[in-house]
Design brief:
5-stranded antiparallel sheet, 25 helices, about 40% helix
Length: about 675
């Protein structure tokens, strides 16, 4: 019996076999026919089952390989499908999820009531607010963490049953990216709006100002409402606008994507400032020009600083090259990096020759260790610099002395970079110093050994230096006097010393006087003292000097001589005899007091000259006396002569004179008043 499906397709033959002869009855055929139809139904069902299973396998593969989580639930909200992505997204295995409600597994606690009310409303009224469109919700993971998902729901009704299918996509990364972008944009907005050192603003494609930040307001001087909508060329000097510079810069930026420029710009009040400008073309994803961003920085101060640095560099180079002393930049290893003309002249080497050497090469070996020790301390930071005197070898082989001053230069990181050295030739000055030292030694020897007192005091009168003569004369040691005032040492002379010091400072000229000073042995001594101001090179008085000679013995001799002179004068007065002297070479004459009395001449006038003496002579005696004196003085003989004079008082006197020539060539003699004797005779 043929097995034919309901769609007419034959699936085979249904046969009944027996080992006995059999003639089917009509009811047997009917039974076979019915069995064949049943077989066809069974075959169709098996085929449908296989097809359904294949479809389900294919659907499962599709769902398991889908990029999104798929969750299907029945009208009671129980899960009937849960794909691999759902397992990965929510952490529940398929076995754990199936049969559980969506609400308890993945709906956030705070939205479960809304979910259940929505499901009930849909099943009752068919009204759905979230079907067939993506929405963003928070979903709950097995670990209790909420994640953002994009949810799309579709409802399928079949045989009176409703199945709800949901596709869920984890949008955590997208949300994080969006938040990062939003945060970045917010930060950028805040930065642009709040930065005050840079003018940052946008231009439209025509060059009109579209945005304006606080920095732009500070740098340019325009308020936002004043400038937005205006062409950015108002920010350029007139000559640049006339030359088309603003529009040309936009064209370059549009063609090359970016333009950077430095030049003058103008503020709202017309002041110029030096600016660095960066213009960037802004294009969308399709490459269409949407406008420009413009960043302007005021570099006026930096430019002035750069110009100042350049001027300082030029000044340094000029000062370095033309310095009257040697200048050099020296490497940490001692190599000459840069030298000036003066240094080359000092050492006799050319610039090229020095740059090929180190300072060690021309330093005297006896001075090298000390120099290197100083350099090491300088590099360690133990000192800021050092000075020393050392010897170089001149190119000629001669040893020269130099004064070296060294400082260290650091690089931007603070590390030692090189040394700056100043070299001064002191060969001549050292010779002068040696000569000066010798001179000072000689002066010190004179100071200590001169048979006179020498002392120096400061401007306040304190002794700074005294020689042994002074101290010994006063019965003290030099150190006992140093730092003390003269009035402290000699209270009885305090007023006189202060008055003399004041006079000396006021006049600025040396003062000489004779003083009686108490000596260390309790006696007093006579001193001839010369006080003088000690001045510096500018003529300012910086101290007081004194030179004292002991004239005690001289004064004693003078007093004795005065006594003898007095006695002689008295004797001459009694004997009416005066004495005289005359030096032909100097024409200096001397008279005793009796001579002045006899001639009636004032001692203030001094001894009479030859003419004065001739005038005193009696007219009758003049020729005779003149001839006698001429003969005596011409021959250098002793003489005796008597003559008359008319004294200054008008009296007529007779005088008897004697004279002779001394071995020194000086003439001496006496004159006796014999007037009374001649009148008696």
């Amino acid at each position: 019996m043929p097995i034919v499906a309901t769609d007419g397709v034959s699936h085979g033959t249904f046969a009944l076999c027996s080992d006995l002869p059999w003639a089917p009855l009509p009811q047997d055929l009917a039974l076979l026919q019915h069995a064949a139809r049943l077989a066809a139904v069974v075959l169709e069902r098996d085929a449908a089952t296989r097809e359904l299973e294949a479809t389900e396998r294919q659907t499962r593969q599709i769902l398991d390989h889908a990029p999104d989580a798929f969750v299907s639930m029945d009208s009671d909200g129980r899960i009937i499908e849960w794909n691999v992505q759902a397992v990965a997204m929510f952490g529940w295995s398929r076995r754990e999820a199936l049969g559980r409600t969506v609400a308890e597994l993945i709906i956030a606690p705070q939205t479960r009531d809304d979910h259940e009310r929505g499901m009930a409303r849909y099943l009752k009224t068919g009204e759905a607010r979230v079907l067939n469109r993506p929405i963003e919700v928070q979903a709950l993971r097995k670990d209790g963490r909420l994640i953002p998902v994009e949810l799309t729901i579709a409802a399928v009704a079949s045989a009176g049953e409703t199945t709800i299918n949901a596709f869920l996509r984890d949008i955590s990364a997208r949300k994080a990216s969006e938040e990062a972008v939003a945060t970045s944009e917010e930060r950028l907005r805040l930065m642009v709006e709040n930065v005050k050192d840079y003018a940052i603003f946008m231009l439209d494609t025509e060059g009109r100002v579209a945005t304006w930040n606080a920095g732009a307001q500070r740098v340019k001087g325009y308020e936002a409402e004043e400038i937005i909508g205006r062409h950015f060329s108002v920010l350029y000097p007139r000559e640049d606008v006339a030359a088309g510079k603003p529009q040309r810069q936009l064209q370059i930026a549009a063609a090359e994507g970016r333009l950077e420029d430095e030049g003058w710009r103008v503020t709202r009040d017309g002041k110029r400032f030096w600016a660095n400008v960066v213009i960037t073309a802004l294009r969308d994803a399709e490459g269409t020009l949407r406008g420009y961003s413009k960043i302007t920085r005021d570099l006026t101060e930096r430019r002035a600083a750069e110009q100042a640095r350049h001027a300082a560099h030029v000044l340094f180079e000029t000062a370095f090259a033309d310095a009257p002393i040697g200048m050099a930049l020296v490497g940490l290893d001692g190599s000459w990096l840069k030298v000036n003309r003066a240094l080359c002249q000092i050492v006799g080497w050319s610039e090229a020759e020095l740059l090929a050497r180190t300072f060690q090469d021309i330093t005297h070996p006896d001075d090298l260790d000390a120099d290197l020790t100083h350099l090491a301390a300088l590099v360690r930071g133990d000192t800021d610099g050092y000075q020393m005197q050392k010897r170089y070898f001149h190119r000629s082989g001669e040893v020269i002395w130099i004064k070296l001053s060294v400082t260290l230069v650091h690089d931007a990181s603070g590390a030692p970079a090189h040394f700056i050295s100043q070299i001064e030739d002191i060969t001549g000055s050292r010779e002068a110093q040696r000569a000066l030292a010798g001179s000072e030694a000689r002066l010190q020897a004179i100071f200590e050994h001169i048979p006179a007192g020498m002392a120096l005091r400061d401007i306040d009168g304190r002794y700074e230096k005294v020689n042994t003569y002074v101290a010994r004369s006063l019965g003290r040691k030099p150190e006992q006097m140093l730092g003390r005032r003269a009035e402290d040492l000699f209270p009885e002379l305090a007023d006189a010393v202060r008055a003399q010091d004041a006079q000396l400072l006021a006049s600025g000229a040396p003062l000489a006087e004779e003083m009686r000073v108490p000596l260390g042995d309790g006696t007093t001594g006579d001193f001839h003292v010369v006080r003088y101001p000690v001045c510096d090179a500018d003529g300012t008085v910086t101290g007081l000097g004194s030179f004292a000679v002991d004239i005690t013995e001289l004064k004693r001799v003078e007093r004795e001589l005065d006594q003898k002179r007095q006695a002689l004068a008295e004797a001459q007065a009694i004997a009416r005899t005066g004495s005289w002297s005359w030096d032909p070479e100097t024409d200096v004459a001397g008279w005793s007091d009796e001579m002045y009395r006899m001639f009636g001449r004032d001692p203030v006038e001094g001894p009479a000259t030859a003419e004065d003496l001739f005038a005193y002579l009696h007219p009758d005696d003049r020729d005779r006396v003149a001839a006698g004196y001429a003969q005596a003085f011409g021959a250098g003989e002793s003489f005796e002569i008597e003559y008359r004079i008319v004294a200054g008082t008008g009296e007529l006197r007779s005088l008897h004179g004697l004279g002779r020539r001394e071995s020194s060539g000086q003439y001496v003699g006496t004159v006796q008043d014999v007037t009374e004797r001649r009148s008696i005779e």
